[in-house]
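Reopening closed ticket. The problem is back. First fold of the pair:
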Amino acid sequence: MKRLAISLTFFLVLALVIGYMVSGPSFMDWSVAGGLFAVAVAGEGFRYWLRRTRAKKRSSV
C-alpha cells in the first residue's frame, strides 16, 4: 500500500508539472494534467490486478 501511495504521489506531481509546462505561467492546463494522472492510476490498477490474478493461479496449483 505504501508503494502505491508513493507511486501515485510521484505521478501526480509529474502530471502537474507537465500540465504547467505545457500551458505556461498564466494558466494551468488541467485537462493535460488530469489525463496524465488518469493514465497513471489506470496503470497502477492494471498492475495490481495482474499481480492478484497471478497470485490466484499460483495458490490454486
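Second fold of the pair, where the issue appears:
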Amino acid sequence: MDRHTSFLRLVDSMLRYYYGLSQDQVDQLTDLEWAEHFADLKWLRQKEAESGQENK
C-alpha cells in the first residue's frame, strides 16, 4: 500500500469513526464534502491535542 492510499484509508476510517458513517456513506460524499469533513476533523483533533497539553 502506498502513502497516498494509506492516507485516504486513514481519513476514511476517521470519518466513519467520528461521524458514525458507514463505508457506503463515506463513498457517497462528494470530494468537497469529504474535504470539509476532513478539515473539521483536523481542527477537532488539534483542539483535543491542545486540551490534552493544558491538562498536564
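Update: turned out to be a display glitch only; the data is intact. The chain has a mean pLDDT of 91. The helical segments are 3-19, 23-28, 31-54. Please close again.
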